[in-house]
Structures are given as structure tokens and as C-alpha cells.
């Protein structure tokens, strides 16, 4: 049964990714992309990587997608904004992604109810990941922190000029 | 038994299909926001393959590489969206075919 759940999640991931990349409207595409990331998180969970699944939801579907939302909302400010908002609230736009996300939630609840399923096989626990991360992979953690710092500086530099110029006009 | 409930080849095929989706999105779309989204999809499919391999052999290394991919994706998107703001301000469009001034 768990394999069936896995294939359903894979199907949702593929269809929502294709739907995301063929939308004309960036905000609609973003909703489908979030559904795709949630489906991949369910696949991680079913493969015995609960920590990776949590990170996928929190960082990918949470933080990175919020960055996209901010930029799309910043760029869409205009006279046509109100009509566009009204169109976004129409039911047909969020029904399909909402149904996909609800299906994923049902899958998650089924897996959580069936506790045997989560621990079947040799799932890798977060503890094992942490021990490896701060043992042999310490240098990789340092490199990742330097990468994040440099991207922080770069994003601040690029974004600050934009905000200053917007304030002047 | 290994930690996967499905054959590993199936997971790799799914990851490959996701990667192809992202690659075609990157090649066919000209809106830079969609190009960044396609890059996210491609990085995500690579992470899926790593997690599948880590679960197959029961090692934690797959999840560690997933975390590093997550870091790269976050850094790339932060700088990329900063560039999107600059491009929108300078060229008044998000169409990448219009922004060819670097070509000289």
C-alpha cells in the first residue's frame, strides 16, 4: 500500500511540475510549484528520510517560494492590479492545486496512522544525519555557510539599489 | 532489505522525468522568473535522486548532500531574484531575449 502512495505522490509531483512550467501567469505557476515540492516531500518521507522531508517543506516550499512570491508581487504592482487580484480569487484557479495538496495531506495522515509504514526498512534518522554532518562533513558545512553569507551580501547589494531608486521616483 | 519500498530504478526515472521537465522549461520559457523556477525543479530532482540513493543503501550521506543542494538553491534564488529586480528596473521587461546588451 505504501508503494501505491509513493506512486500517487510521484504522479502528483510530475503533473504539477508540468502544469507549473506551462502556466502563463507566474502566480498560478508558483502555486503548482509549491504543490510539486510538497509531493516531493511526501516522497522523501515515504523513502525513510523524515528530516529531509521537513526541510523540503520548511525551506523549499516555505522560504524559497516566499521569495518568489515577494518578487512577483513587487513586479506586478500596477493599475491592472485590482482586476488581477479579483481574477486570482476565482475558484477555478486554486481548485486543482488545492485538490492535489488535499490528496497529499490524506496520504500523509494515512502514513502517520499506519506507524509500521514509517519505520519499515532502514530509515535514516535525523540523529544519524546530524552525527555525519558534524563529523566527516564539517568542511562541507563551513563551505555551505560561506556560500550563504556570500549570497546574502550579493542579494543585499542587488536589492538595496532597487529599493533606493524606487524611493527616489 | 533496503530502505526503499519501490524499486530504486523507478525513483531514478521519476527524478529524471522531473529533471527533463525543468530542462525543457529552462529552454522553452523566456520569462526569467520561469527560468528560475525551472532551475529549482532541476535542483529538486537531483536532490530526489540523492535521497533515493541514501535510502537504498541506508546511509545518511544522501540527506547531507540534499542539505547542501538546498543551500545552493537558496543562494541561487536569492541572488537570481535580486538580478530579476535589476533587470526589470533597467530593461522594463522580464523577457530574456530583450536583455541582450551584454552581447556587445
Automatic annotation (TrEMBL), chain B:
Top-level enzyme category: translocase
Localization: Cell membrane; Membrane
Cellular component per GO, a single term: plasma membrane
Transmembrane portions of the chain: 12-29, 41-58, 64-85
Catalytically driven reaction(s): a quinone + NADH + 5 H(+)(in) = a quinol + NAD(+) + 4 H(+)(out)
One Pfam family recorded for the sequence: Oxidored_q2
Membrane topology note: Multi-pass membrane protein
GO molecular function, a single term: quinone binding
Keyword annotations: Cell membrane, Membrane, NAD, Oxidoreductase, Quinone, Translocase, Transmembrane, Transmembrane helix, Transport, Ubiquinone
UniProt-listed GO biological process terms: ATP synthesis coupled electron transport
InterPro entries: NADH_UbQ_OxRdtase_chain4L/K, NUOK/Mnh_C1-like
Source taxon at top rank: Bacteria
EC number(s) given by UniProt: 7.1.1.-
UniProt xrefs under HAMAP family: NDH1_NuoK (MF_01456)
Functional summary from the UniProt entry: NDH-1 shuttles electrons from NADH, via FMN and iron-sulfur (Fe-S) centers, to quinones in the respiratory chain. The immediate electron acceptor for the enzyme in this species is believed to be ubiquinone. Couples the redox reaction to proton translocation (for every two electrons transferred, four hydrogen ions are translocated across the cytoplasmic membrane), and thus conserves the redox energy in a proton gradient.
Annotated family: Belongs to the complex I subunit 4L family.
Assembly description: NDH-1 is composed of 14 different subunits. Subunits NuoA, H, J, K, L, M, N constitute the membrane sector of the complex.
Name of the featured protein: NADH-quinone oxidoreductase subunit K
Organism: uncultured marine bacterium 463
Amino acid at each position: 500500500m505504501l508503494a501505491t502512495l509513493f506512486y500517487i505522490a510521484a504522479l502528483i509531483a510530475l503533473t504539477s511540475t508540468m502544469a507549473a512550467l506551462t502556466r502563463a501567469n507566474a502566480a498560478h505557476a508558483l502555486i503548482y510549484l509549491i504543490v510539486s515540492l510538497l509531493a516531493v516531500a511526501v516522497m522523501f518521507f515515504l523513502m525513510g528520510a523524515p528530516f529531509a522531508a521537513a526541510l523540503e517543506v520548511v525551506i523549499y516550499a516555505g522560504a524559497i517560494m516566499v521569495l518568489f512570491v515577494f518578487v512577483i508581487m513587487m513586479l506586478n504592482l500596477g493599475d491592472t492590479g485590482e482586476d488581477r487580484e479579483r481574477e486570482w480569487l476565482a475558484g477555478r484557479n486554486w481548485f486543482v492545486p488545492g485538490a492535489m495538496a488535499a490528496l497529499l495531506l490524506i496520504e500523509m495522515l494515512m502514513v502517520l496512522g499506519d506507524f509500521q509504514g514509517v519505520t519499515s526498512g532502514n530509515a535514516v534518522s535525523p540523529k544519524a544525519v546530524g552525527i555525519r554532518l558534524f563529523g566527516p562533513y564539517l568542511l562541507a558545512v563551513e563551505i555551505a555557510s560561506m556560500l550563504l553569507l556570500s549570497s546574502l551580501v550579493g542579494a543585499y547589494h542587488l536589492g538595496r539599489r532597487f529599493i533606493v531608486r524606487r524611493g527616489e521616483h | 532489505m533496503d530502505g526503499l519500498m519501490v524499486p530504486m530504478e523507478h525513483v531514478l526515472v521519476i527524478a529524471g522525468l522531473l529533471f527533463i521537465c525543468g530542462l525543457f522549461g529552462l529552454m522553452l520559457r523566456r520569462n526569467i522568473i520561469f527560468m528560475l523556477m525551472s532551475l529549482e525543479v532541476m535542483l529538486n530532482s537531483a536532490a530526489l535522486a540523492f535521497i533515493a540513493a541514501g535510502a537504498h543503501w541506508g546511509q545518511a550521506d544522501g540527506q547531507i548532500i540534499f542539505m547542501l543542494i538546498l543551500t545552493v538553491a537558496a543562494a541561487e534564488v536569492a541572488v537570481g531574484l535580486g538580478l530579476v529586480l535589476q533587470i526589470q528596473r533597467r530593461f522594463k521587461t522580464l523577457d530574456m531575449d530583450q536583455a541582450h546588451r551584454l552581447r556587445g
